[in-house]
Amino acid sequence: MKLSYSATASMAALGVALCMSGQAAAQDVQVAGQNEGAQAQEAGEDIVVTGSRIRRSIEDSAVPIQVLGAQEIEESGTTDLAEALLQLPGVSESISPQSSNNLIQASGLSTISLRRLGDDRTLVLINGKRAVSNSGNSDRVSLSTLPAGFVERTEVLTGGMSAVYGSDAIAGVANFILEDDLTGISLDGRYSFPEASGGEEFRVNALAGTEFLGGRGYALVGIEYRTENEVFADRTRPLTIAALEFDDPIPSTSSDGWTDEINFPGCYGVDTERHCLLPSFSGSTPGGVFEGDAWFVDGRWFNDLSLRPDNRPPGSDFYTDFDGWNFRPGRTNLPEREIFNAALTTSFELSDAATFSFLGSYSDVDTIYYTGYETLNSGDRLGDGSTIGNISASNPFIPPEVEETRSGSVSFNRRLIELGEQARINDRRTMRFIADVSGDLSDTLSYEVFGTYGHFEQQQSNPNEYNFRNARFALDVEADGSGGFQCADADARADGCVPLNPFGEGTISQAAADYIRYNGYGEQVREQYTAGGFISGDLFELPAGPLRFATGVEWRREFQETDGDPDGDLFAGANGVRDLNDGATRDTPNFAPDVDFDITSLATFPSVTASYEVVEAYGELDIPVFDGFNIQLAGRVGDYTTVGTIFSYNAGAVWKISDDIGLRAQYSRSQRAPNLTEIFSPPRPDGDGLSDPCEGLLPDGTGITGIVGDGAENADLGLVARNCLTEPGIQAFFADPDNAGDPFTDDQTGTQGPNAGNPNVQEETASTITAGFAFTPTFIPGLTVVADYYRIEIEDAITSISTQNTVSLCYSAEDFPNNRFCDVITRDGVGRVTEVINFQENLDTELVSGIDAQVLYRIDPEFIPGRFDLDFRYTHYFKQEVSFEGIGGTIITSSPLGEIGESEDEFRLALGYTNGGFRLSYTVTYLGGGVDDIAQNSDPLDERYFRVGDQDFHRIYMRYEFGEDDRFQIYGGVNNIFDDFGAFVPTGLDNGSSYNLSNSLADVLGREFYIGARARF
Fold first, then answer.
1. Residues 410, 393 contacting (CB under 8 angstroms)
2. How many CB atoms lie within 10 A of CB 842?
3. Crossing angle, helix 717-725 and helix 728-735, to 10 degrees?
4. Do 291 and 410 form a contact (C-beta atoms < 8 A)?
5. Is the pLDDT of residue 368 over 70?
């Protein structure tokens, strides 16, 4: 299904690849009456979009369709497809180079989410065919693997489309149609640079197409190379290095009253209940902090006794927000990216009834993030629950400045500058092949038979982490009898242990750094095979026209193989053994984690090999009931080797009431089968916050005053106490003489909360309603108004229960410990929660509803030369909710709508002017601001109220065409004209982080200039 080249060219030139429906497309052609598009329409060439196996135009579609043409992509000011699509209301980022700084497997990807429902519910197609995933932990396609210079147009269908395209199309479909009709050579070079440091980009794109064998054959070759310099946090972007957090100010009555945070600007005087922006530094410094009261900074030792700093009273310890280290400068805000894309498309007319087509593409995307320096802490915890521990009082490296304050062994916190900066280095390569044979069986019937193959592989390096166990050995130091020092453990010495001196800056030797350094590495492969065929055309004539149909079958196989780091493989520790009992699993009696399980600072991904297959059959009908009114039906049945049989269907209608107005509506029932990760993934290491519900318990069952979790107010605290008292580890805590009379405490605010797949998870199901109209008044030529309402409700949504809710649900249940919550919790011998596995389950109900609208106006005023155009697209969200069962069996409904990045309103306004070879456009995108936590802190008088304002970003584009047939172009523009870095959302907030600008309402690049040139031969 394709758009003729002449029609495409005119649409791109006019900027009419838009969110059109009803009769909008027909009127656009009429508006363009004197141009090439009108000539194509008059010649009988159909403007056809992909949204069905039945050949139909935009005006005949029962679902909303947005179309973004090649010219709109260019005028967006970016060479990245994801960034271009994100300017459309209703399209949001899922993973972006800006937001994935600290991700492991997914760092550097560019994926989109429709209706805020996630990239795994947004099906990405290439020429109407599925594309292999570019991720090892979900089904998601990174749009950086698709060259913007090859894309003829993008069609975004926002409605349940599983009946047409199968699983994953719950939120909709983004279909990328690649160029396949260019003859000659096209060269395009572009250079961009921001006003602030870094971020320079160079892109070159080359296409060469030709016909052969008298026009029966066609071939097109394209190459794109793009390189982008990294953007580091530095003074040219002050917000990126601002050492601020949102937190409680310390009142002047405390022991650290000299800090006077209560009078920090913005803290409202003596209002101790008001959170505000405060200094935020790290207690892990390059010189180290020891016992909390001796520290080395700026080349000097300080302590709370004889070396007390001048700015504080006696007895004042190290205070992080005054003495600490700003770790933000130098970290990557946008990665270094090098991208190479190549594609070959060819077709050959085998006979009058058969045409062979082939598309092959190759992509190599390399990204590098620098994420700061690792920290060495005496409290760093291994997977077996033990910690690195304090430095022995006999350690010969302890300096006098620390010895003066020491009362026993020495706790420590130190930044490991000597190891070098941590990084996320990814090399991703993707190959995709599509082959098909299509043709006409008769004047009214056509067919297509196709096959595809996709191969994705990723090599990831994560250097300069550290090995907890080796650090423990290296900190246990003794004299070697020859005037030097050695590691105390003989086995560790035999394994190359080198003594480590953490006291002061630059004190860790290169040999010691090499010994404790851990360079993580992992590989993963995804493969996808599809094959199928369909027949479409007219069945027979009805009074109002032909009854059209499509029917076909498809087969698909998804395969994944991941080789994670040895330490990251939860089913085999660094020595290949998951358990002390040599291969036992959690279900084995007396299960005990291996002593080397999870021994590094890197949260690596586990090894897994998995696959599934699905066979599907589908059919579509387009039934003309009376003139201008058609009913559209579709159904698809799929048989999965994992979840069995699922069935999807659509029922819709299109009614062209008059030349001025058209109506459309559709109801769909769509499914998303669980992906490979959701079914087969072993537990993936992850650290989560946890407030133990047993905290505060006394031996007589009193002491628990409340628990944390969704619906915690419904918990029976007496029942919680009785359940906690049955835990052997908690009883062992009470039996320890050192704890006599003390309430139970595990001295932890978090635990290991690995995420894991679940072989019992089933498909999730969505019910979708869309209804809209298109108004194209004949009395206002050139005007189109379009609006669509949508409502998507997902049942049995695949997700996991949070670590906190899992533990709280376990201990508040009457059937403790015989329930699925308690089954995934591990406590150690002294009662500490060491692990809570978060399995995927069918748990939630999700609901999103809203309205999309567009106003399109084209005018050629007689009194002014040239043509003016306006394109306004707007989205308003009515609802965005998640419902789930909380503690006490209560159904809880939460809504992030109105929070940061989840605004109720979004719009894009583009104004253009064209006169001969000159084109000028101005675009503004608007995103509503929001509250950080609307459920808990939506009142400006709330203690933790934090809101960012609405954000709008402006860009301008200019182009001039010249030469014979306008074969030469120069173009350029300015993005983010007003140099607005966007929303500042620091750490201490639900939506914040220490990257400060790592959110969807920010533009860390700032003002950017670009210039380019294009030539056709």
1. yes
2. 17
3. 80
4. yes
5. yes
**What is the three-class DSSP state of 741?**
coil
d(CA 761, CA 799): 10
DSSP label at 285?
B
Mean pLDDT of 257-275: 68
What are 237-240's contacts with CB under 8 Å, separation 24+?
237/196, 237/197, 237/333, 237/981, 237/997, 237/1004, 237/1006, 239/981, 239/984, 239/996, 239/997, 240/328, 240/333, 240/995, 240/996, 240/997, 240/1004
Q: What is the mean pLDDT of the chain?
A: 88
Q: Please, what is the angle between helix 717-725 and helix 803-811, to 10°?
A: 90
For the CA atoms of 30, 34, 40, 42, the dihedral, rounded to the nearest 10 degrees, stands at 60
Q: Which residues contact 909 (CB under 8 A, 6 or more apart)?
A: 870, 871, 872, 873, 923, 924, 926
Beta-carbon contacts of residue 26 (< 8 Å; ≥ 6 apart): 57, 59, 776
Which residues does 787 contact at the CB level (< 8 Å), separation at least 6?
A: 772, 773, 851, 852, 853, 854
Nearest by Cα to 248 from 265, 269, 262? 262
- Select from 636, 637, 612 the least CA-distant residue to 557: 612
Would the pLDDT of 825 be above 60? Answer: yes
Give the pLDDT of residue 948.
95
- Residue found by looking up tokens 């027979």 in the block: 540
397-448, pLDDT tens digit by residue?
Answer: 999 999 999 989 999 999 999 999 999 999 999 999 999 999 999 999 999 9
CA–CA gap between residue 610 and residue 594 (Å, rounded): 25
Q: Contact, 167 vs 175, CB < 8 A?
A: no
Percent of the chain with pLDDT over 90: 68
Please state the rounded mean pLDDT for residues 26-52: 39
Long-range contacts from 569-576, C-beta under 8 angstroms, 24+ separation: 569/604, 569/606, 569/607, 569/682, 570/597, 570/598, 570/606, 570/682, 570/683, 570/684, 570/685, 570/754, 571/606, 571/607, 571/682, 572/607, 573/383, 573/597, 573/598, 573/599, 574/599
Q: What six digits make up the tokens of 589?
A: 């009696």
Spatial contact of 468 and 388, defined as CB atoms under 8 Å apart: yes
Q: What is the pLDDT of residue 477?
A: 96
H or E segment to which residue 41 belongs: helix 36-42
* Predicted local confidence at residue 979, as pLDDT: 97
pLDDT band at 602; cut points 50, 70, 90: confident
Selection from 93, 82, 64, 51 nearest residue 158 by Cα: 64
Q: How many CB atoms lie within 10 A of CB 941?
A: 7
Task: Report residue 1006 as tokens.
Answer: 């700032």
DSSP 686-716: -EEE---TTTT--TTS-------STTGGG--
- Asked whether 838 and 801 are in contact (CB, 8 A), the reply is yes
- CB contact at 8 A, 915 and 963: no
Q: Which residues contact 436 (CB under 8 A, 6 or more apart)?
A: 356, 357, 448, 449, 450, 451
List strands edge to edge, sheet with 300-303.
300-303, 294-297, 289-290, 412-415, 375-377
**For strand 129-130 and strand 838-859, is the pairing parallel, antiparallel, or unpaired?**
unpaired
Say what the pLDDT of residue 591 is: 47
Q: Which residues of 23-55 are buried (b: 16+ CB within 10 A; e: fewer)?
A: bbbbbbbbbbeebbbbbbbeeeeebbbbbbbbb
Residue with tokens 């040239």: 866
* Total-model pTM: 0.89
Selection from 731, 741, 726, 705 nearest residue 811 by Cα:
726
Closest CA to 709 of 809, 815, 813: 809
Decide which of 19 and 266 is more confident: 266
3-state SS assignment for residue 1016: strand
For residue 417 the two structure tokens come to 């500058």
Closest CA relative to residue 169, chosen from 184, 159, 179? 159
In 373-421, beta strands by DSSP E: 375-377, 412-415
Which CA distances in Å does 277 have to 361, 450, 498, 629?
49, 58, 43, 60
Cα 911 to Cα 871: distance, rounded to the nearest angstrom: 7
